[in-house]
Amino acid sequence: MSGAADTNKTSKHSKKGKKGKKGKSTSATPATPPPPPSPDVLAIESFKTGQQLYAQRHYEQALQAYLHAYELMPAPDFLYNVGVCHEALGRPSEAMEAFRTYLEKKPEASDRAAVEQRLVRLEARHQELELERARNTPVAPTRTVDSRAAPREIRAGRWLLVTGGVVFAAGASVAIGGGASFGLAARERSTQVSDPIGKSYEQVKTLDREGRRLETLQLVTVGIGAAVAIVGAALVALGIKRIRNASGAKQLSWSPVGSRDTLGVAIGGRF
Q: β-strand 252-258 against 263-269: which pairing, if any?
């Protein structure tokens, strides 16, 4: 047979090589590496791994294996197994999405009726979980306002606003007006003291004493006026707070306003 002949021939050549005085060494040709497995083959292997993991109730690991198989080979059947894993993990929403995509990509599926019934059960389970989640979600307490107490509080707040504005204006007027008048008088006395020509020593001393007294009165007047203005500002702030609490107003503000002839408080917002 040709096969035997070839074998014997190869054997004889090998003997001659041994008898020869100097045999030539031949280098072995490196073996060609096998080609890498195709994505389809890898997908089937990942699918089989998922089957084994699912049988062992390792649903999360099985899900990852099925998803990897679908990435390598987007076959709709893999999505069915993805939905089964989500259902076993108690994720009805994700399971419904996988089953619906499975039916969209495989409209002629022989198990369509069974999958649609499965979707009905999953939808019911999804609604149950949503209701349970809603019952367990803490509800923020709502603020209730007594309808009888609110008008009284608003009236009291308005009274505080008006009173505080008047007190603030009065205190500011005293601080500014009184301080300015006493200050001008003290400055006049100081000017007279600095020009003693035609005045006796006693007159100069009297003018100096009056100037110092006027300066003291200026400081006292400014201090009293400022204190009264602070009280008025506190009353305005308290009135704004009471109106906010009673009516739920979110934007109430106040600021002092004034000109050469008037002084007061500007209040903005709804109250």
A: antiparallel
